Amino acid sequence: MPASIRPGDVLADRYRLVDLLSESGNGRFWRAHDRILERHVALHVIAADDDRAEGLLAAARRSATILDPHILRVLDAERSGQLCYVVNEWGSGTSLDIMLAAGGELSPRRAAWVVGEVAAACARAHAADVPHGRLNPENVLIDTSGAVRVIGWCVDAALHGRPTGRVADDVADLAGLLYAALTGRWAGPSSSAVPPAPTDHGRVLRPRQVRAGIPRDLDTLCDEVLNPQPGCGAMPAEAFRAVLEEFVGDPSGLQESMTSRLVSGAHATVVLPQVPEFTVREAEDLVRGAPAEGPAAAGSEPQGAEAQPEPAASPAPERAEETTGEVTQAELPGFLVAEGESSAPTPPPPFEEPPARPLFAPDPPEGAPVRRARHPHPGRDSQQYWPWDTEAGARTGGAGAGWVDTGWPTGTGPVVEEEVPGRSSFRVAAILLATLVVVVAVTVAFNLGRGRTPLGTVPEDESPSDTASAQATTGPLEVASVTDLDPQGSDGGEYPELTGLVVDGDPSTTWRTSTYKQDFGPGGLKDGVGLVLDLGETREVAEVALRLVGSPTDLELYVVDEPPTGVPAEEGLSPAATVSAGDQEQVSLEEPAEGRYLVVWITSLPAVSDGFRAEVAEVVPRG
Q1: What are the residues whose beta carbons fall under 8 Å from the beta carbon of 273, sequence distance 6 or more?
Q2: Which GO terms describe its molecular function (predicted)?
Q3: Considering the entire predicted model, what is its pTM?
């Protein structure tokens, strides 16, 4: 294959390469963009002289004969120059291998529905004797609507150099897909990046031996196909589909629910940048700065690109300048400055420094009063001004024209002094202080009248009764019954006959879990087990006393209104407390919780001599 092929290249003047998705030898799997139909397509490309070229084109022709909504169909196949390529419909979503790696195994019903959709496509294709040839998790796609699509029918096997597939291999791959969806391990005959399933003496372990809680019907189906008995014929895809369909029952809502498992970013749409075509301007226009045919009209727009918004007009200068007809290359008018005139404006003269203000008023001269007399009110002045009376000066003894004697007292009377600043503030403070004293006196009298101390507290001789009542409210809560919680088990529970021993008041008797070879959590058989204490009615739980055997024991406490039937976290419940407990633990909830049921959910087991096991001697909830 030419080494120069890279993103951005165009094949057959139609398909622009966008992303290289995978490689197999010299074969490459691309996401491309169909420039004619304006859509994304999947492109399998190898060199035209490659030994697989003929097989790839033949596989494309066989795949094109199958019309099924689950199969991403073949759109084109051709040799072009040094390349041979096959174009398939593009699907946006998350492949099963990525979904399992990101979010873990599927629930049994979801797993059966997904593989049942693939089996339906196989049944239709096998009826025409056209097997897929490489039906692994990488070729099963959950699209953005939750529907199941199959990638590379016939074509992917040819690209990997595999011979024409067999129907029996497809059915074994179907069982491998179901095994992977249930356990996260791959057991099919085709190659896959999913971790392989564990084996024992050449036999694949049953799904229930890898992960607890798998329904027996699905466990048996996987085991019968992956570990066939000698002399038994291969199960047809239609029979495989029928078993899964019967297990699923009504599939309503399953497709929509699969959208919650899509991996963010795994199906992001690539938007190709648009390359604008710019209009080439003549050199003469660039020099003149104007079109050859004259000034542009007010409503005209530039060609070859979208019109850009005009910038806001800059404010007009304070002093208008003369402009000439000369224009610069940027189409801005040139400015001329008169001779002898500086282009920079003359700076304003500096401001005079303000005179220094004295911090204190100057002392008055000797004998002068400290305060000046207030001027009499104009309305009560001894003289009133009459501007048109020209004889006033003669009548008032030369006091001045326009002034009229009114007979009011003159300004030689007693001086009206100004009020001392701050005197009103002292009055307000005195009033507030008096009010506060009255309020305190009334409060003390009221408290003494009720038999309390002056501060309103209870006398010391009355506090023991209150303490006793407080202790009564935080006493042990009565437990009506205790049951075990083992949602992922298949052997009848975790010693349900011993659950009552955790509330019998005897620390020497215990309830215990089964002994496990692995601890709970990632990689273990279960997420956890637990106990459900029925308090008989809705009660408030503030703390829980625990007596355990062995440490550490990681557990979560839940206070709920309805007993859980599955893993509490998967049912959307939030723990009231999480603790890594020793032999004795007093767990106080951050906030008291109300509910009828107290759930003690064990998430990690202490180690014992033969594995991992937890034992609980006493559980005492307190209100």
Answers
A1: none
A2: ATP binding; protein kinase activity
A3: 0.46
